[in-house]
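User: My instructor asked us to take a sequence, write out its structure as tokens, and then describe one feature of it. I'm not sure where to start. Here is the sequence I was given:
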Amino acid sequence: MYVPPKFAEPDNAVLRDFVDRHPFAVLLTQAAAGDTAVSHVPAIFPDGRTDILHAHLAAANPQARNADGATATAIFSGPHGYVSPTWYETGPAVPTWNYAAVHVVGPVRVLTDEADRRAVLRGLAQRFETPGPGAWDFDALPPEFRGGQMNAIVVLEIAVERLIGKFKLSQNRPAEDRAGVVRHLERSDRPDDRSLAALMRSRPGIV
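Assistant: Let's start with the prediction itself. The structure tokens for your sequence are:
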């Protein structure tokens, strides 16, 4: 990912928090032969860990068959939106697109131990399931059904070697232009535009 210095986010704590907030990833793996495979999957840091990332693929997915030992890049995207030059106080200018993205890069290990696989799947469900009475319970599934479902997936663990963050939020524009971008995004009917405005407001030195 091309990251000009103005848009770089070097704080790993910020990047990990971003992954937690936007956990649906584009997962790319590159096998030794050089072939690149792509899937869209939820991927999370397990509780208390920031050095590994967990995800799973359908066993029928060709990407799963070549995942073990491959280098993975998990791409996490946040709010994004069009920025019109008419929102600026200064000019001339051209349109652009503001966005935030984090790449997690590292080698893949396919988990084969049954207890490890169950722990990952349990953790993924608990991360997204609404807690409380009536919540879906992995361990409450009939054993035969659960076993069949588990046989249909491949559980992945990615060792985090690099975190790369790009927060392109008009940092290259003067303060009055950044303020104009935020004002217009906040007035938008698009929820993603308003989320982008909130992200810009949350970043030090943007507005």
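For the description part of your assignment, you could build on this observation: The chain has a mean pLDDT of 95. Try explaining in your own words what that tells you about the chain.
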